[in-house]
Design brief:
The protein contains 7 helices and 15 strands. Helix content is 32%, strand content 31%. It has 2 domains: 2-125, Rossmann fold (3-Layer(aba) Sandwich), CATH 3.40.50.2300; 135-238, LytTr DNA-binding domain (OB fold (Dihydrolipoamide Acetyltransferase, E2P), Beta Barrel).
């Protein structure tokens, strides 16, 4: 597992490196002391997990996440506990408080390695590309559906699950959004954010939103915010 450490304090990065040293499965491939450097490092090094501080000069950790798509797993490492709820809203794998305790870090490493094993198994089982006209099997508890992909307007990540929006149904499936993103036709299904993939054929309206982003309303009534970077990507993709 390739890891990137992102913290504006050199001593904090060094302490985390020392704490991770007993885990050979976690290979630290780089460090960054601000968001801009981190964004470039993520694009170049393609880490599997990032250990991310929240309070940094310039962009904070949450703003960094808005700038990149196809994100690795995120473990927040911060001295402040008031951001915990928002951290899990952006689907963070874990949230560590400084000073990081070895026993608590061991739990995080276990989560990272379990996630990697699950993802490897999932990728072996679910690697075939999907076409818009394909029917997919969706099961949630005792309920089952065969659904055309073209009828699905939104995939929404909820922890280790994805909520599938079609007709009036909202079943949860045990799948990662990253895996779906790799298999879906990217001319139809657009990765709007870390938590959402939207079907562009279901878009009813688009409005300019805060900080250069967009707000998309789907014909099913859902509203999805698109970050500035993803908004630029969408405009570029859809322009003549």
């Amino acid at each position: 597992m390739k890891a990137l450490l992102i913290d504006d304090e050199r001593l904090a990065r060094q302490e985390l490196k020392n704490l991770l040293a007993p885990y050979p499965e976690i290979q630290i491939v780089g460090e960054a002391n601000n968001a801009e450097t981190a964004i470039e490092s993520i694009r170049q090094l393609k880490p599997d997990v990032i250990f991310l501080d929240i309070q940094m000069p310039g962009k904070n950790g949450f703003e960094l996440l808005e700038e990149i798509s196809g994100l690795p797993e995120v473990v927040f490492v911060t001295a402040y506990d008031e951001h915990a709820i928002r951290a899990f809203e952006v689907n963070a794998l874990d949230y560590l408080l400084k000073p990081v305790q070895p026993a608590r870090l061991a739990e995080t490493v276990k989560k990272i390695l379990h996630k990697d094993t699950s993802a490897t198994t999932e990728n072996k089982e679910q690697t075939q590309p999907l076409n818009d006209g394909d029917q997919v099997f969706v099961k949630d508890g005792e309920k089952c559906w065969f659904v055309k992909l073209s009828d699905i307007r939104l995939f929404e990540s909820e922890g280790n699950y994805v909520r599938v929006h079609f007709e009036k149904n909202r079943p949860l499936i045990l799948r990662s959004l990253n895996n779906l993103d790799e298999r879906l036709n990217n001319r139809t299904f657009f990765r709007a954010s870390r938590k959402h993939i939207i079907n562009l054929k279901w878009v009813e309206s688009i409005e300019n939103w805060f900080n250069g982003g967009l707000m998309v309303k789907l014909r099913g009534g859902e509203q999805v915010e698109i970050s500035r970077r993803q908004a630029a990507k969408l405009k570029d993709m859809m322009s003549l």
